[in-house]
Amino acid sequence: MSGPTPHNDQHGQHGHDASDEIAYGKVIAVGVVSLLIFAFSTVWAAYILSHETKKNEQATGAIHRPSRVEREEIGIIDQVPFSIDKRVERWRAEHDGRLNGYGWIDRDKGIAHMPIKQAMDAIAGGALPAAAPTGTAPTAGTPTNAPAGKDRIAPAGAPETPPEGGRQ
Question: How far apart are CA 49 and CA 45, in angstroms?
C-alpha cells in the first residue's frame, strides 16, 4: 500500500485541492482598490460641497456660517474646554450655600433649614425636630396600629389599636 491511491492523486500531497488555496494577492488588490475608490469619493464629495457653497454665497451675497458652531453646547455634546469650564464651581457654591447655611424652606409654616453639620450633631446628641415622631418600639404583646406582619412604630398620638373598619 505504499503506492499512490486515487484519493492522494486528486488532492495533492497534503490532501488539499488547488482550488482551496487563497489568492492573497487578489484579496489585497481588492482591498486597496476599494480604499482608493472610497478616498476618491470622499475628496470628490468635499469638492462638490465646497463648490456649491461658494456658488450659493456668490449668488446671495451672504456668507452663511452656522451659529450653532459658536455655542457651548450643540445637542448633547459639550464643547467647552475643561480649563475654562466653571459650571461645576458655580453648582458647588450654590449647593454648599444651602447645605452650610440657614434659610427658609416654608416661611409661612415656619420651617427653616440649618447647616448640615449642626443638624447632624444635634440629631446625634438626641435633639429631634418638632414634628419628629417620639414613639417607642413596642414590646411583645403590645398592640400597635401597624398592619399585621409589619414592624413599624406607631407615631406619637396615634391610637393604640386601629379604628373599627380600619386596616387589620
Answer: 6
What's the CA gap between 47 and 53, in Å, rounded?
10
Rounded to two decimals, the pTM is: 0.30
The grid coordinates of residue 18 equal 488547488
Q: Are 60 and 54 in contact (CB under 8 A)?
A: no
What residues contact residue 113 under an 8 Å CB cut-off, 6+ apart? 98, 102, 103, 104, 105
Bridge partner residues of 74 (DSSP)? 77
Amino acid at 157: G
The number of residues in the chain equals: 168
Q: Please tell me the distance from the alpha carbon of residue 137 to that of residue 151, in angstroms, as a whole number.
A: 9
pLDDT in tens, 100-152: 988 888 899 888 888 999 989 988 888 877 767 766 655 555 555 545 544 45
- β-strand partners of 113: 103
- The domain spans of the chain are 24-62, 85-124
d(CA 97, CA 107): 18
At 17, the amino acid letter reads: D
pLDDT digits (tens, 9 = 90+) for 49-79: 999 988 988 888 877 666 665 555 556 666 6
| Residues 127/143, Cβ–Cβ less than 8 Å | no
Grid cell 505504499 is found at: 2
Cell representation of residue 21:
488555496
